[in-house]
Amino acid sequence: MGDTVVTQADIEAGLRSLGLGEGDTALVHSSLKSFGCVEGGPDAVIDALLGVVGERGCIVVPTLTLGSPESPLVFDVRESPSSSGLITETLRKRHDAFRSHHPTSSAAAIGCAAEQVTGCHGDTPCGLTSPYGQVYQRGGWCLFLGAPWSTNTMFHVAEEIAMPRYLRFAEFRDAVVIDEAGKPCTVSFRRYNCYQTGVKRDLSRMGPRYEGAGVVRTTRIGESECRLIRAKDVIDISVALLREHPEDIFWYEH
Questions:
Q1: How confident is the model at residue 1 (pLDDT cuts 50, 70, 90)?
Q2: Where are the alpha helices (DSSP H) in the chain?
Q3: For residues 7 and 209, what is the distance between their CA atoms, to the nearest angstrom?
């Protein structure tokens, strides 16, 4: 962590300079330590985000549970920790947060339509009904707060639209999801199964393509390099590549 001190007001000003505003929906990928020293910690970042989008807006964060045991696979909506960083873990614990029920690729949201955004997460990680797909369909943004392009969850929505030949899924028929009321339910779902089957894909390769198209807004907040891009631009550019030149993003490991 750097010596730069960042306040909630600094973060709000930076977000507004990027163009995020009242009523917006944003999928946020984040690194708390990228800012330097944030007064108020992750709660200050969350409050800044909510303050900028206001009551009519919605903040969505990935709360992935990657690395959890898969035999048996048990996902507790209330207790299973997010592996996507401290900001996401803090947001999902808030009393007004809603979390989707996908056992490995859940997302949490706060704000207007948060319940609807998280309420219909299908069996695949990033289909159009998932919170990630919902951000796209609602005309939302993808915001990167010190997080690299390799964290771009929206790219996976593009993969599920384009269905490139390299895309692989593993199916689980006996996962247990424990809901907000503590009630367990056995579900079937799929997760991506690319690297496990020798398919390597490098999402960071998409960054220059978005930037080259002139659709990325950038600013610095404290020590954090921050980027904002329309979800539609991510999808349009990514789907075009996946349909025409998917080899630019993946390769097989022998």
A1: low
A2: 8-18, 41-53, 86-92, 114-118, 131-137, 154-162, 207-212, 231-244
A3: 32
Tokens representing 37 are 């020293």
Give the distance from CA 78 to its chain's centroid. 18
Q: How many CA atoms lie within 13 A of 61 on its CB side?
A: 30
Provide, rounded to the nearest whole percent, the portion of the chain with pLDDT above 70.
99
Rg (CA), the chain: 18
Q: In the chain, count of helices (H) and strands (E)?
A: 8, 14
Query: Helix (H, G, I), strand (E, B), or coil: what is residue 117?
Result: helix
Whether residue 158 is predicted with pLDDT greater than 80 in this model: the reply is yes
Residue 251's pLDDT band, with cuts at 50, 70 and 90, is: confident
**pLDDT recorded at residue 252:** 82
Q: What does the alpha-carbon distance between residue 150 and residue 155 come to, in Å, rounded to a whole number? A: 9
Mean pLDDT across 190-218: 96
Give the separation between CA 33 and CA 12, rounded to whole angstroms.
Answer: 17
Q: How far apart are the first and last CA of the chain?
A: 38
| Cβ-based burial of 183 (10 A; exposed 0-12, middle 13-18, buried ≥19) | exposed
The three state secondary structure string of 40-51 is CHHHHHHHHHHH
Which residue has tokens 């997080």? 147
